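Thread: quick sanity check before group meeting

JM: Hey all, I'm pulling together slides for Thursday and realized we never actually wrote out the predicted structure for the chain we discussed last week. Dropping the sequence here so it's in one place. If anyone has concerns about the input, flag it before I start.
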Amino acid sequence: MHKDNCFYLGKIVKKHSFKGEVVIKLDTDEPELYRNLESVFVDLGDNLVPFFIEKSSLSRGTMLRLKFEGVDSEGDAEAILKTGVYLPLDLLPKLSGDKFYYHEIIGFKIKDSSFGSVGVIKEINDSSSQPLFVVEKDGKEIFIPMIDDFIKKVDRENETIEVVTPEGLIELYL
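JM (edit): ok, ran it. Output follows.
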């Protein structure tokens, strides 16, 4: 399985017991959707390796405690600590309306209500406190905050997102 065909579910953040259990911090608003998984892919040395789940339980919101088959000791758990956990894209629940997954809008065009055509979404920068659309226009990058109040419409059919940004925001980058 390649990362291109998967989505990031979370990260193994700690060991839970001397029997090899681990805790995954889920990167989702709906952790209950992932309570009864059969398997996940763990990112080991740039390879996604399937791990089968013996038991799982959800605790403290977005923390998922797992016991993997073949991970039976603290040492086994230590070997997979701090690694990313992935699932195939077809397991993502379908979204509708103005909700979207970051990966699905790459390549969409951005149109601003007053500026007009802004450019094409190159990536999503989610390393800051507020995620940003990174839009490319004529070789320049424009950063637009992904605020619900700014997003007017998501048109999947035409691969366009209509936004309403504060006056002058887009011009700052041009």
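AS: nice. The chain has a mean pLDDT of 91. The domain at 3-89 is CATH 2.40.30.60 (Elongation Factor Tu (Ef-tu); domain 3).
JM: adding both to the slides.
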